[in-house]
## 1
Amino acid sequence: MEDYPESQKHLARPYRKAVLKALLGLTFVGGLLFFTLNINKQNYPLAFAELVMAMYAMAVYRAVRNTQHLERWILAYTLPFFTTMMFSLVSPHATASVFAWVLSIPILAHLLMGRRLGLIISAFYMACAALIFYFKYRHSAEMMQPLPIANISVMSLTVLAFSHIYEITREQSETRLLKIAQTDSLTGLANRVRLNAVFEQERARCLRHGTPMSVLLLDLDHFKQVNDRFGHEAGDLALKQVSKILRQTLRATDLPTRLGGEEFVVLLTDTAADKALQVADKLRLAIEASPALYQDQPILLTVSGGIAQFGTDGHDLRSLISRADQSLYQAKDDGRNRILVAGTAPAHCPG
Ligand SMILES: Nc1nc2c(ncn2[C@@H]2O[C@H](COP(=O)(O)OP(=O)(O)OP(=O)(O)O)[C@@H](O)[C@H]2O)c(=O)[nH]1
């Protein structure tokens, strides 16, 4: 589970909303201005289009304030906006300077829609603008000179390339920061923040498809003695060793996380409690069989655990962890090195 698309979408929303609101404000004011200018020039179709866009900008501004569907509103506004721009380029009354607006397309499209969709939308509208330019000025000897054409083309491609590169690097830094924010620095496992985010996604999937999901809470036994006897560095090494076993043993669709201290939570997707117990026992035996080596000394490790199943034992992460925690403490009381399923009699005896 290495993707961060949902978190990234949430992270991009506030700044995309700010860019959209600025665009809406500017097009409202600009629309009214160009409406007046076009009325004075008796260019009524374009004046009417500018007025409609200004009113539409106002309506969208009100709609996006509390929307849950920002991406849809971005498309619902920018596509008519860019199309109106093309309409202005076609207008016989418009001067060649109107083509300068085309340079705003790649910037706005990338800022508002990200690198992939931004590139597609920019390429489409810039190609339309190039065709309009050609058909409008193909008989104009002045405009069809190689120098102005090369100038316009290179400038347009430069703005497109820089907008795209900017968005790629911005998304990459965002992914890097998200990864750092959602990773436990000692073990490299996911942390509580990521656990919460993935749980919410998986919960929706479980409710939609009716698939099971279990939460396994693991706690190292007598870990204080490891620190006291071998030192804190050895304790850290033991935590890394357990993390390595979790990563190696679990399926790619499961999420092993470190909650803090010597406590781990594993989110087992598409897994009911009885199957989760089998997985947990496999982990428990692997941990027992692989002592951490600190300065050539083996540190024997065992874990106790509790399992709770989504739906049966709770519908949110907090209650599931709390139910698993009750079983974990029961497992500790029963002698440690065992896993118990919530609401059942002791399900495993070490041996
Ligand atoms: N080395 C190391 N130790 C940690 C870390 N986080 C917590 N600990 C130690 O983990 C120990 C946990 O001790 P306890 O809560 O008493 O649990 P325990 O000794 O494992 O006993 P039981 O859970 O009852 O089996 C404490 O000594 C903490 O200092 C860490 O990041 N690194």
Note: The longest helix spans residues 5-40.
## 2
Amino acid sequence: MTVQARDTRAVAAAEPILTLHQVQKRFLVRKRGIRVETVAADQVSFTVRRGEVFGLVGESGSGKTTLANLVMGLEAPDGGEISFCGRVIASPGRRPPFPYGDIQMVFQDPRSSLNPRMRVHQILTEPLRAVSPERRAQFGSEAALVELLGQVGLRPESLHRFPHEFSGGQRQRIAIARALVTRPKLVLLDEPTSALDVSVQAQVIQLLQSLQAEFGLTYVFISHNMGVVRYFCDRVGVLYRGRLVEVADTDTLFSAPSHEYTRRLLDAVPTWSHAGAERLVEEAPNGGV
Ligand SMILES: Nc1ncnc2c1ncn2[C@@H]1O[C@H](COP(=O)(O)OP(=O)(O)OP(=O)(O)O)[C@@H](O)[C@H]1O
């Protein structure tokens, strides 16, 4: 199985597609009658360049999903700003037009992210409701949907089936197709392989790599799996209790982490190796998804 060679210099020179500037997000919850504040994003600033895979890592509760939700417009920030393609899309108290269709998300577990009562056709056409009629007509036809299913490795007849008729890996392929149906520029991948078997994980990562080249995508990849992060990402941001403590090229982060927390995070993962991650992809059996 061939892995696509990435032109890291071209990616490093690319223009920003997503910029977070001092983004702040607090949650207030009641615990035994007492109001407790959690700072889920604390003055977070980073830039994602067009065409790159930007990893976000950090222990559970460090704020990874909160950042993805803010970029998706599912939550509003309490402070700071988020810009996409040079335009502010999120800031406190302002609701600028959100670029629906241009940013999409793939969630961790396709069992819960796909509606079990919808056939694949309906699942794929749902996101098109938010885009222009021209785009809807172009990408929502049966022929376009069948082509997209082929691009994620599923047969045309899948269109008329329900999610429970597919394996876990196939369901994640449907979720990826749903994310791509609007032809987004940016896709947020929130632990897209962690609910899958190891061999299937490798196939899904390889699929994401080939789709990135085919569709000209930029990814933000949220993961706990440092082996996959090292293999898949161009740069990585490390979150610790809502703060971004380090952003570095992947090789630099793994060979010379500058923050104490990053070192602890890497020390806590004894089993990864770059060669191991590559072997994982090489050895993945065809057709097992
Ligand atoms: N809707 C919410 N209401 C209250 N607290 C929240 C909410 N969403 C997130 N939090 C809190 O914000 C913090 C960051 O959570 P978040 O889910 O972003 O972390 P994470 O790094 O994605 O964790 P995981 O890896 O477990 O998914 C946590 O303390 C969490 O409990």
Note: The chain is about 35% helix and 25% strand.
